[in-house]
Amino acid sequence: MIAFKPANADDWAVIRHIAYTTWPDTFGHIITADQLDYMLNLIYNEESIRSQMSEKGHHYLLATLQEDPIGFVSYEIHFNSQPQLMIHKFYLLPEFQGVGIGTKALNLLSEIARKNGDKLLRLKVYYKNAKAIGFYERYGFRNAGSEETNIGNNYNILDNVMVKEV
Ligand SMILES: CC(C)(COP(=O)(O)OP(=O)(O)OC[C@H]1O[C@@H](n2cnc3c(N)ncnc32)[C@H](O)[C@@H]1OP(=O)(O)O)[C@@H](O)C(=O)NCCC(=O)NCCS
């Protein structure tokens, strides 16, 4: 059975493992190997994961199948002091994609948003990640512009911003 369980900072290695397993499959054909390594190191080192949770207000949920972690999502309520829930991260191990778990996670995030008085789900998705964009559109998200972020090392990331009312 699929469950979503709140993760804490001591789960950082599990989260990192899922990211390191999922990213090459998701981004290996759309960003360079150097950029992929750089971003994984930057975002998924122990200190970064801990500070996302303890300082930045990111809540992590681990998706589990019979207790085994198979993915994670992170989110922030009242993002930018607006009534919106920001989905920061959303990764399922490749072998568990396409069987409805992502939809379950979005349903749960919609419920969390509503419970906290947030009216909107918001996320950024890399503009070349066509598979994820198709999934979000299928769920009812619409495009709300784009955003470029300088992540250092001369890398600028272009993302589509997408939103959906809950
Ligand atoms: C994106 C992701 C979270 C989606 O979760 P998932 O469990 O694979 O998606 P689901 O199985 O719930 O798919 C739900 C629906 O979206 C549809 N869908 C999926 N990809 C689609 C696409 N590219 N275009 C159109 N529809 C798509 C499915 O057909 C399904 O529709 P149905 O209910 O009519 O059958 C997951 O695939 C994933 O982790 N991908 C790799 C990492 C990634 O890109 N994360 C997003 C970063 S922003």
Give an overview of the whole structure:
By secondary structure, the chain is of the alpha+beta class. It has one domain (about 1-165): Gcn5-related N-acetyltransferase (GNAT) (Aminopeptidase, 3-Layer(aba) Sandwich), CATH 3.40.630.30. It has 5 helices and 7 strands. The chain has helices spanning about 10-25, 35-45, 45-55, 100-115, 130-140; strands at about 1-5, 60-65, 70-75, 85-90, 120-125, 140-150, 155-165. A 7-stranded mixed sheet has the order 1-2-3-4-5-7-6, sandwiched between helices. The two termini are about 25 Å apart. The structure holds coenzyme A (COA).
**How many domain regions?**
1
Second rung of CATH, namely the architecture: 3-Layer(aba) Sandwich
Number of strand segments:
7
| Bound compounds | coenzyme A
**If you consult CATH, what is the topology?**
Aminopeptidase
Quick check: average pLDDT?
98
The CATH superfamily is: Gcn5-related N-acetyltransferase (GNAT)
> What share of residues are in beta strands?
25-35%
Distance between the termini: 25 Å
Q: How many whole angstroms does the radius of gyration measure? A: 15 Å
Just give the CATH class. Answer: Alpha Beta
Main sheet record = 7 strands, mixed
Helix amount = 25-40%
Number of helices: 5
Order of helices and strands: EHHHEEEHEHEE
Write out the strand line-up for the largest beta sheet, numbering strands in chain order.
1-2-3-4-5-7-6
Global geometry:
globular
Pairing-aware structural class of the strands and helices? alpha+beta
